[in-house]
């Protein structure tokens, strides 16, 4: 949205908007000064600071349904934006006039005076790329966005089976409130009394998540799973410190953990000790016990993902949490895989003390393309007093750690989606969703048997809600996991998660949202790809997998020197013909691209 805002308005439009905001602000400042008020910001853009009896102003403003910001009894601050009309300005002036017991001034035009000091003004050009100077009508912008969308293999084309990311259905009904101004236009710091509807929803959502996780309380403040990890670890740290345990700073993390776990632990000032996995992919309990005992005087926490990122319910989980507690530590459960727990079990039951939930994974907030994250933390009783606070709004525990994000309830608007999801499904629906997610994963596991091996299974040969498919043996035929990922595009599918948490593998998670029909289409594609792998040879890189994906350019080119037909390239299975997705680019060397910075801008000399 922010990107398209810049594309639509371009440098001229943005400057026009900025001037409009500033002119309105300075016009207002002049009027307030004329009324005798002391506006103390000398160089400003959109915000004024008035030294006056703020209680008096507040009373009159409230009567007129205007919110200003009152940092203390002697200060009123207010900000103008491009939607502030002349009428709004006159209303603001009238409030101040009443407070000063003077006749109000009526302004009929906005002056063009500029109060930004010369030394701060930008003199260089900005947004000079074509993209910011082309699409300035709604029609043009719509076509531009559509052209981008067409390049994107998204959920409106086919299932996206990314594991550990839970790309689940985002029902339209859940999304509706996001475009209602009564939700969208509420400032995070409006007086609580004016946000009772929001507070009711957020409180209920907190209670629902508390119940789902089997804990005692929830904080909606963190804006992502990773931020939740940081928040949860800081809460654990505050708990230890409250007991005089200032030395507890060791965080045990199994080797199968998501990369955010060690990163968050380091940010929270802890020292990471990695514990081993067994050949079956489970946490090596002996190694864990040994390390917990070794560090028992300094043990702060274990971070554990359950079910594991290997897609297995570790049957030793309660033993594991007990070992940590016996050695004075707290258990942080990474809740990214809650899609395999909701209604069936919960973090409280397995002995964890705190977990984050990724509402943008398990609770239906769309997150493909970097949508808003919400990563609440849910905590057991002993950690409730430390839940994060906020300097302006009374929130969190009575020994709250400092704010984790600026807004007291984080991304409150996005919470409405999860609220709708939980309310509409109810207890039975949520449990059924978990069961379906597990069933769908095991159905895929079963259907792929004979073509692909699942790397790890539980003791009964089953997966949880996701599974890792081993592709390393195909190296014998010269085929890498990326070749499979690229070839899936020719079949109209987005690749599953590649090489996480095990290099050379695919992690597949179907979720409950997908129908059997769609899952079968995906399995058909995988099985067909396996046949292509069988035909590939290490000595010849010219095959349908190595050359994938096949763009429209390639397939329609007059030159065709591949040893297979155009039809095999573009329509490997019949159903592909019905709804063909054309990848718009062939391959970029992904690992090379990650390691080598390539500047696509003009050469550096141009900037001199
Ligand atoms: C996604 C994920 C995270 C991080 O969550 P974000 O919301 O992306 O910050 C942590 N752990 C696991 C296992 C995950 O899948």
Explain the overall architecture.
The protein is of the alpha/beta class and 608 residues long. It folds into 3 domains: 2-120, Aspartate Aminotransferase, domain 1 (Alpha-Beta Complex), CATH 3.90.1150.10; 215-410, Aspartate Aminotransferase, domain 2 (3-Layer(aba) Sandwich); 434-607, Aspartate Aminotransferase, domain 1. 38% of the residues lie in helices and 10% in strands. It has helices at 2-34, 54-63, 86-99, 138-150, 172-175, 181-184, 196-213, 225-242, 260-267, 285-294, 317-326, 347-350, 412-448, 481-490, 516-535, 552-556, 566-570, 574-578, 590-595, and strands spanning 38-39, 47-51, 69-72, 75-79, 217-219, 250-254, 271-275, 299-305, 330-334, 354-356, 377-379, 453-454, 467-470, 497-498, 505-508. The strands form 3 sheets. Strands 5-11-10-9-8-6-7 form a 7-stranded mixed beta sheet, sandwiched between helices. Helix 9 links the parallel strand 6 (250-254) and strand 7 (271-275). Helix 8 crosses helix 9 (260-267). The longest helix is centred in the C-terminal third of the chain and has 37 residues, at 412-448. The two termini are 32 Å apart. Bound molecules: pyridoxal-5'-phosphate.
């Amino acid at each position: 949205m922010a990107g398209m805002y810049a594309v639509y308005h371009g440098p001229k439009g943005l400057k026009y908007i900025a001037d409009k905001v500033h002119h309105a602000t300075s016009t207002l400042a002049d009027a307030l000064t004329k009324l005798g008020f002391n506006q103390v910001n000398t160089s400003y853009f959109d915000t004024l600071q008035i030294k006056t009896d703020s209680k008096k102003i507040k009373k009159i403003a409230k009567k007129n349904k205007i919110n200003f910001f009152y940092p203390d009894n002697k200060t009123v601050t207010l900000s103008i934006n491009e939607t502030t009309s002349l009428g709004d300005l006159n209303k603001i002036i009238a409030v101040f006039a009443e407070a000063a017991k003077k006749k109000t001034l009526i302004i009929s035009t906005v002056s063009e005076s500029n109060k930004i000091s010369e030394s701060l003004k930008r003199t260089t050009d900005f947004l000079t790329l074509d993209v910011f100077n082309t699409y300035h009508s709604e029609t043009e912008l719509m076509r531009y966005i559509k052209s981008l969308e067409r390049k994107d293999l998204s959920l409106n084309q086919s299932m996206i089976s990314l594991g550990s990311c839970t790309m689940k259905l985002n029902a339209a009904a859940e999304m509706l409130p996001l475009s209602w101004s009564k939700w969208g236009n509420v400032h995070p710091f409006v007086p609580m009394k004016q946000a009772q509807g929001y507070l009711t929803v957020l409180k209920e959502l907190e209670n629902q998540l508390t119940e789902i996780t089997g804990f005692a309380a929830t904080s909606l403040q963190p804006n992502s799973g990773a931020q939740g990890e940081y928040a949860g670890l800081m809460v654990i740290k505050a708990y230890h410190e409250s007991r005089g345990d200032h030395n507890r700073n060791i965080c045990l993390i199994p080797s199968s953990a998501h990369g955010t776990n060690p990163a968050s632990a380091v940010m929270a000032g802890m020292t990471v000790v990695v514990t081993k996995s067994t050949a079956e992919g489970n946490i090596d309990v002996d190694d864990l016990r040994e390390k917990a005992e070794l560090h028992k005087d300094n043990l702060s926490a274990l971070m554990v993902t359950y079910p594991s990122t290997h897609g297995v319910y570790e049957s030793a989980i309660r033993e594991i949490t007990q070992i940590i507690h016996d050695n004075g530590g707290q258990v942080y459960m990474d809740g990214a895989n809650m899609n395999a727990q909701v209604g069936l079990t919960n973090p409280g039951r397995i002995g964890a003390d705190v977990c984050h939930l990724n509402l943008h994974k398990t609770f239906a907030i769309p997150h493909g393309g970097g949508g808003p994250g919400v990563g609440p933390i849910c905590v057991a009783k002993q950690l409730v007093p430390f839940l994060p606070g906020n300097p302006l709004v009374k929130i969190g525990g009575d020994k709250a750690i400092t704010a984790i994000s600026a807004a007291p309830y984080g991304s409150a608007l996005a919470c409405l989606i999860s609220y709708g999801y939980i309310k509409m499904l109810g207890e039975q629906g949520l449990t059924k969703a978990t069961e379906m997610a597990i069933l769908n994963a095991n159905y895929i596991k079963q259907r792929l048997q004979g073509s692909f091996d699942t790397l790890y299974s539980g003791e009964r040969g089953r997966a949880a809600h996701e599974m890792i498919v081993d592709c390393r043996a195909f190296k014998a035929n010269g085929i890498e996991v990326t070749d499979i990922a690229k070839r899936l595009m020719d079949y109209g599918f987005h690749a599953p998660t590649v090489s996480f948490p095990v290099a050379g593998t695919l992690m597949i998670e179907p979720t409950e949202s997908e129908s059997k029909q769609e899952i079968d289409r995906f399995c058909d594609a995988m099985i067909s790809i396996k046949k292509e792998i069988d035909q590939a040879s290490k000595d010849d890189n010219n095959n349908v997998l190595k050359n994938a994906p096949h763009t429209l350019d390639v397939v329609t080119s007059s030159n065709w020197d591949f040893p297979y037909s155009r039809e095999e390239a573009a329509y490997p299975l019949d159903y592909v013909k019905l709804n063909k997705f054309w990848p718009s680019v062939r391959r970029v060397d992904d690992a090379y691209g990650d390691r080598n910075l390539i500047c696509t801008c003009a050469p550096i000399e141009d900037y001199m």
